[in-house]
Amino acid sequence: MTSFKRIFESLRRGMQVDSSFETYYGSLIRNSDSGNPTASEARRDFATLRSQVDRSLIF
C-alpha cells in the first residue's frame, strides 16, 4: 500500500484504531522494564518505521 493511499484511507476512516501500532506499542510496554516511551513518542517512531518499510516495498 502506498503512503498516499494510506493517507487517504486514514482521512476517510477518521480516528479508527491502528492495530499494527497497538501491537507495536503493546510489545514495547510488555518487553521493557522501565523508561517506556509515551504513546505519542512511540507513534512518532512507528510512523518513521512504517514509512521506511513503505519505501522499501515500493522499490
Q: Tell me, briefly, the overall form.
A: globular
How far apart the termini lie comes to 12 Å
| The number of domains | 1
Overall pLDDT score: 79
Structural class of the secondary elements?
mainly alpha
Rounded to an integer, what's the Rg over CA atoms?
Answer: 13 Å
Count of beta strands: 0
- β-sheet strand percentage: under 5%
Order of helices and strands: HHH
Short overview:
The chain has 59 residues and is mainly alpha-helical. The chain has helices at residues 3-13, 19-31, 39-58. The chain has one domain.
Helices and strands in order, then pairings?
Blueprint: H1 3-13, H2 19-31, H3 39-58
Characterization of this structure:
- The chain is an all-alpha fold.
- It has one domain (3-58).
- It is built from three helices and no strands.
- The longest helix has 20 residues, at 39-58.
- The model has no long low-confidence stretch (mean pLDDT 79).
